[in-house]
Amino acid sequence: MRTLLFGGLLAIMANTGCHQANKSASKDTLVDTTLTTDSIFNLVQKQTFEYFWDGAEPHSGLARERYHVDGDYPEHDQNVVTTGGSGFGIMSILVGIERGYITRQQGFERLVHIADFLEKADRFHGAWPHWIYGETGKVKPFGQKDNGGDLVETAFMMQGLLCVRQYFANGNEQEKALAARINKMWEEVEWSWYRNGKNVLYWHWSPTYEWQMNFAVTGYNECLIMYVLAASSPTYGIPAEVYHEGWAKGGKIRDSVNAYGYTLKLHHNFARELGGPLFWSHYSYLGLDPHGLKDKYADYWEHNVNHVLIDRAWCIENPKHFKGYGADSWGLTASYSVGGYAAHAPGKETDLGVISPTAALSSMPYTPEYSKQAMVHWYKHYEGKLFGKYGFYDAFSETDNWYPQKYLAIDQGPEVVMMENYRSALLWKLFMSCPEVQAGLKKLGFESPYIK
Prior knowledge:
Elements: H1 7-15, H2 37-49, E1 66-68, E2 80-82, H3 83-99, H4 104-120, E3 131-133, E4 139-140, E5 149-150, H5 151-168, H6 173-188, E6 201-202, E7 204-205, E8 216-217, H7 224-232, H8 240-247, E9 254-259, E10 262-266, H9 300-317, E11 334-337, E12 340-343, H10 357-361, H11 368-380, E13 387-388, E14 391-392, E15 406-408, H12 409-424, H13 426-432, H14 435-444
Antiparallel strand pairs: 1-15, 2-3, 3-4, 5-7, 6-8, 9-10, 11-12, 13-14
């Protein structure tokens, strides 16, 4: 693992008007409580981007599954890359170019390196696995029977790659060549294969165990983007009935649940009364713009805003009386947890007293003032315990006095992307400019301002 210098953080803080820093909680953390909200925003976005730049796995250029400041990796997986998190990281590189963190040429060269790796890495009917060994491109099983293609992770990767294609499509000859290589990978994903002959998409296929995992993907959860891309594919597309009968369960995805004065009109799997973890309103919408996005089941902007507001309201009510919860410290989603890893969400069984900063930060487009309020509070009032060289650490629990200095790619990536979508709609504009995506959405019966 490459050495990551603390000096880079000092330089960034100098550029945002920092003059004097408080005592840090670790050698990797420096906090200046005099920063303005805008300066903190800039700092958080830049440092979180560094997870995917300086912190990338060097052989592949992709995002490491995890990074632990103390270097303790019980599974010795520090060079394992994650497909979905890398898709988010690819989008973050585009943010880095636009924000001036890196030059266009630097970003382009890294993305060429990534394309070189992805073209040679293990794929299964066009789909990458969940985890890949960064040194070799070979699959690392996510579980015994999960040693093949992962269509959901592939969708997250392809969401990012299509943004890159659009970004460089009208560039110089070398940039156009990269866009063409990405287009080839896009056309090679066999979305229709993952139907297994049925009107639903399956999450996994293994060359050893074939369909034994038997995980049909139905809504509502984080996987909408997979169905949109499958419908959009020009080579292995699915018909609309796969979406309506599979994902939407023949209309049973419709619901009407009210909590704290906000209504959810989609049935959240395993979390009906108060909504699921907040990443369900993030992952599919890093590229898929929810503004004006509607089908016969929901208005997705309204749905996502209400999902976030319910989560925040639960944390303010705090019925389980955890320490540190409130209007300025909220956000339940899947992340590290005191007991390992958990999909935190509002509810007596699913709220474990763990706040995940990505939940509020990645909700920036939906609840900008509330998200900024939490961001500033965490930065200024925890003496550096929550903030390090790659931005806010993954999760914490004031109740358990638990402040691990750990990061996960799938949580860092949405922060960078959604903070940028709030600022400029960069990734939304790129992804929604894909003519195939517009056609796919139209095929499925969606309305969107981007559909011509």
